[in-house]
Specification:
It contains five helices and eight strands, in the order βββαααβββαββα. It is an alpha+beta fold and about 220 residues long. Helix 2 packs across helix 3 and helix 4 packs across helix 5.
């Protein structure tokens, strides 16, 4: 466990299931809520976007391995991944995140933590904690090239949904979100969304959520 990690909240653990092509989090035995990514996928016109690619690719495997490595690092657990070419690359990318992001945190509240908003949706936050005296939600991404702000739109919406959920569930006030992009060539970029911009993304997210609910109601009618 790294010394920046503190037990601020008792984050829940939700089981995951799939109904048709929608991912659900089971909040309890009676309540299944759709995932944030499923809601975005079903309300987005650009279904060919890499954000919604559900086919497991080498790039996705490296990203998953990087996330796993970072989670084990933060909690001080031994990483039990089988050594491979993909894992070696994922470890290199993870260390870039550690050296250029995680070391800058004042406090880390959790890694890969699940949150939910009422019984409307749920998701998993990559990293949350205090950085530069602000409560911040982090989403880290690995890719072959840096994405533009426009290409990161759904990631901003995703984090805005998580911010709403965390604030509601734990009575907090998330100040900002960061999309931390790490590229295969070793470069990286931080895309920071401040409080004012975050409020705009929250409005956009609620619009998406409303459209999703209408769509599901029509399909179940």
């Amino acid at each position: 466990m790294i010394d920046k990690l503190i037990t601020k909240y008792n984050y829940p653990t939700y089981s995951i299931n799939y109904i048709k092509d929608i991912k659900y989090y089971s909040l309890n035995e009676n309540i299944n809520t759709p995932s944030v990514t499923s809601i975005l996928r079903h309300t987005n016109n650009q279904l060919n976007s890499s954000f919604f690619n559900t086919k497991i690719t080498k790039s996705m495997e490296i990203g998953d391995l990087m996330h796993s490595y970072l989670e084990e690092y933060i909690y001080g657990r031994d990483n039990k991944q089988v050594d491979s070419k993909n894992f070696s690359l994922a470890k290199i990318l993870a260390k870039i995140v550690i050296d250029n992001l995680i070391v800058n945190f004042d406090e880390i509240w959790g890694s890969e933590v699940s949150v939910s908003y009422k019984d409307q949706y749920a998701g998993t936050i990559d990293l949350i904690g205090i950085i530069n005296k602000k409560l911040c939600i982090i989403d880290y991404k690995s890719s072959y090239k840096k994405k533009s702000v426009e290409e990161l739109e759904n990631h901003f919406l995703q984090c805005a949904a998580y911010a709403i959920a965390h604030d509601w569930q734990f009575n907090t006030h998330v100040d900002s979100i960061i999309i931390f992009q790490v590229v295969r060539d070793g470069s990286f970029e931080q895309n920071i969304v401040n409080k004012r911009e975050l409020d705009i993304y929250k409005e956009k997210w609620f619009d998406k959520l409303g459209k999703f609910n209408v769509k599901m109601a029509k399909e179940n009618d």
